[in-house]
Each structure stands twice: as structure tokens, then as C-alpha cells.
Amino acid sequence: MFKKVLIVDDHITANSGVLQVLEHLKIEKENVIKSQYCDDALLKIKRAVLDKDPYDLLITDLHFKEDHRQVQLSSGDDLIKAIRDNNFALPIIVFSGISLLQKVRFLFKEFNINAYVCKGRYASRELTQAIEAVYRKEQFLSLEVQNALSPKNDLEITDFDIELAKQLSFGKLQNQISDYFKDNNITPSSVSSIEKRLNKLRIQFKADNATHLVAKMKDLGLI
């Protein structure tokens, strides 16, 4: 089993739950290090590598609340990217309340994470399963997001598409979405560009109309 683990989470209750799981798996407390900031976590990882005593496993949340402290890495996404940019082959388990399939798929494909566990009713059981699976060099996904890596969900969806669908779900018309995009420096923002992208998305998702499109994207966990 893993001997040295780094937990990165700013929620005390989540940390406690992870610690209980690690204790159940017979991982010694003195070898489990906690960090509430992603910047600190990266420094710990780098220092451990320099000391030739690297971590065996990282368990990190994605969302971190802002406070008085200025940071360079403000999210788990930033931390994961920094780890991979430094060419650290550290096994990574994401432990998050975010269950968007697009987000899960992106992290697996772009940064080669090893497992994704959703915080919730079955979190302890699934985190235990995830740690055991990653130790066996296998991938693990919570049931809630298990379809994220399905070929059926291998869609070319951009952040623009997701934001567009979100605005549609709020009941906004195309001209209102155009104004919103202009106000928030989101491009393209013209009504014609938005209409073209919506038509493409409807075809891609085999949706009859905008309402049907939003429903399908919600079912896939994209919004």
C-alpha cells in the first residue's frame, strides 16, 4: 500500500474523512501530510523529490475558497497542471464535489490523473476503492461520473459551448447571450456566431431545439 500521502483540501471535515480512510488502509499517520493551499502543496512535492523521499500519492480537491492570502495556484486544476508541467509522475486522485463529466474527462485526458471520486454519501467507500485501484495501477471513477470516459461522450465541447448552454438554461435569448458575452469579453459574441454554434451543437447532440439541447447536456453532466 502507499506509504507517503499528501492531502490537499481546505475543508476540515473532508480532511477528517480522508484521514479515516487512510487509517483504515493501514497508512501510518506520520506519513500523511495535509495542506490547505495548492502553492504549499507544490512546494512540499518539490521538496520531497529533492530530499529523495517523494510522495506516493496525492489526494486533492479542485475548489479552494479565496482568503486574505495571495496565491499563484488557486485551484486543484492549477496544482495538477503544475505537477505535470514539472514532469512529476505522482499518482493523483481528485476528491471533489464537482461532478461535471466534461471536467472529469478533461483531467484524465489532459493531465493523466488516476482516479476521480465525488464527495457525497458514498465518498468513503469509493475513496477506499480508488486508493486500492490506483495502487494496483488501475483507473477509478465514482459511479456518478463513470460515463465520463465512455466513447459515447467523446464530444468536442469547448468552454464556450458550456457557457453558451448555461446561458440558454437561464432562459436567455440569443441577443441577450450576445450582450452577456460582450460584457464579459467572451468571443465570438455576435448573434450570428452564437446561432451558428447552437445549430452545430443541436446537430452534434441530435437535439430538436434549444430546450432539448440544454436537457441533453444536463443529462451528460456538461452543465
Task: Describe the 3D structure.
Strand 3 (57-60), helix 3 and strand 4 form a beta-alpha-beta unit. This protein has nine helices and six strands, in the order βαβαβαβαβαβαααα. 48% of the residues lie in helices and 10% in strands. With 223 residues, it is of the alpha/beta class. The chain folds into two domains: 5-148, Response regulator (Rossmann fold, 3-Layer(aba) Sandwich), CATH 3.40.50; 157-219, Orthogonal Bundle (Arc Repressor Mutant, subunit A). It is elongated.
Give the SSE layout.
Elements: E1 5-8, H1 12-24, E2 32-35, H2 38-50, E3 57-60, H3 76-85, E4 92-96, H4 101-111, E5 115-118, H5 123-135, E6 140-141, H6 159-169, H7 174-183, H8 191-205, H9 210-219
Parallel strand pairs: 1-2, 1-3, 3-4, 4-5, 5-6
Arithmetic mean pLDDT: 91
* CATH superfamily descriptor of the largest domain: Response regulator
What is the share of helical residues?
A: 40-55%
Question: Within the largest sheet, what's the order of strands?
Answer: 2-1-3-4-5-6
Strand content: 5-15%
Which terms would index this structure?
223 residues, alpha/beta, Arc Repressor Mutant, subunit A, 2 domains, 9 helices, Rossmann fold, 10% strand, 6 strands, elongated
In short:
The protein has 223 residues and is α/β, with parallel strands linked by helices. It has helices at 12-24, 38-50, 76-85, 101-111, 123-135, 159-169, 174-183, 191-205, 210-219; strands at 5-8, 32-35, 57-60, 92-96, 115-118, 140-141.
